[in-house]
Design brief:
- The structure is a single chain.
- By secondary structure, this protein is an alpha/beta fold.
- It is 36% helix and 16% strand.
- It folds into two domains: 232 residues, Alpha/Beta hydrolase fold, catalytic domain (Rossmann fold, 3-Layer(aba) Sandwich), CATH 3.40.50.1820; 89 residues, no CATH class.
Length: 347
């Protein structure tokens, strides 16, 4: 089995600036292939402390290539957590309220489409799922969610770091950054880099090791090295940067509760993750079996929650041998993962 023909060299990318409802500047990347799309628009939403380019790693055939090959009209969102935007004390609640509804509306206005689909990853997925569950995304018909949606479940050591260490760390710094591996920002960043170097001996890429310290439990936490080719393993050095402690505090509250908890005083319904979804969107939930950032139980719980209110409508896929991000960065993801996601989009 060989991948089809479209590659990064065939992409034509246009950048569109949009403004969230609270005034935050965001960008949408519209990616076109050699031919005009004959399917509707699909929005891709990245996770925390990365950017839209997450979906275009230097592997021969990315999820963007797969979508273009199947005729989809591809849009990538840099929401407020993107490292391509100025660092800000963002929260999932703010993204759900202000970013995702504006992005969906902008794509519909640009394309004339009545609705669109989405592929959402990690904190792009949690914030997008929160917006959908709150009824803010009525024009989204299919949501392919990777890693976690409404019910974050994390490994025991990651839970200790999030609930015990993060409050202490927040007194020392306003953010954590894997980029401290090569760029210091004060004494705390240098101490952290040294501690990670001593406790994470799994590879020679200190950014890779810093990512594991920041986001999960494992060596490494977000992928299996066997899935990443050397070029991609080097590429991640420039693809991870700062994440504010405001996010870790919000996620800590959600992990304690067992479901997403909107920030106090926000316009989001407090019960958005615990009652019937205010959305007709169909969720296709994906989780790597070996994910050490958010355990597969996260997606199992969201699937059970959705099925309770909309039985038979949603789907769940646990991908054997994959973790958190190698679902998109893996050299063989085009064969092992993309077909399942495309099938869900085309249902």
């Amino acid at each position: 089995m060989r991948p089809p023909s479209i590659t990064r060299g065939d992409h034509r990318t246009e950048t569109h600036s949009i403004v969230a409802t609270d005034g935050t500047l965001l960008t949408l990347l519209h990616v076109r292939g050699p031919r005009e799309p004959d399917r509707g628009p699909v929005l891709l939403v990245h996770g925390a402390g990365v950017r839209a380019e997450l979906f275009r790693p230097p592997i021969p055939y990315t999820i963007v290539d797969s979508l273009l090959d199947r005729g989809w009209d591809v849009w990538l969102l840099n929401w407020r957590a993107s490292i391509d935007l100025p660092l800000n004390p963002w929260t999932l609640t703010a993204a759900a309220l202000h970013d995702h509804p504006v992005a969906v509306r902008a794509i519909r206005e640009a394309t004339g489409a009545a609705s669109l689909s989405a592929i959402v990853h990690c904190q792009g997925s949690t914030s997008f799922a929160l917006a959908a569950a709150a009824g803010l995304l009525p024009d989204v018909d299919t949501i392919v969610s990777n890693a976690v949606a409404l019910h974050p479940v994390i490994p025991a050591f990651a839970r200790f770091k999030l609930l015990t260490m993060a409050p202490w760390i927040s007194r020392m710094t306003g953010y954590l950054s894997p980029a401290w591996a090569y760029r210091s920002d004060g004494v705390f960043s240098r101490i952290t880099r040294r501690a990670v170097a001593l406790t994470h001996p799994e590879c020679d890429n200190l950014v890779c090791r810093m990512v594991s310290f920041t986001y999960g439990s494992g060596r490494p936490a977000l992928w299996s090295h066997r899935h990443l080719d050397e070029r991609t393993h080097d590429w991640i050095t420039g693809e991870f940067a700062a994440v504010p402690m405001s996010f870790f505090a919000e996620m800590g509250s959600s992990v304690r509760a067992g479901h997403l908890v909107p920030s106090a005083g926000s316009a989001l319904p407090a019960d958005a993750a615990t009652t019937a979804p205010r959305s007709a969107a169909r969720f296709a939930l994906f989780a790597g079996e070996d994910n050490r950032c958010f355990l597969p139980e996260s997606q199992r719980r969201t699937f059970a929650h959705l099925e309770r209110y909309q039985p038979g409508r949603h789907s769940l896929h646990i991908i054997k041998g994959y973790g958190h991000l190698d679902v998109f960065l893996g050299r063989d993801a085009w064969r092992d993962v993309h077909p399942l996601m495309l099938k869900e989009l085309e249902r």
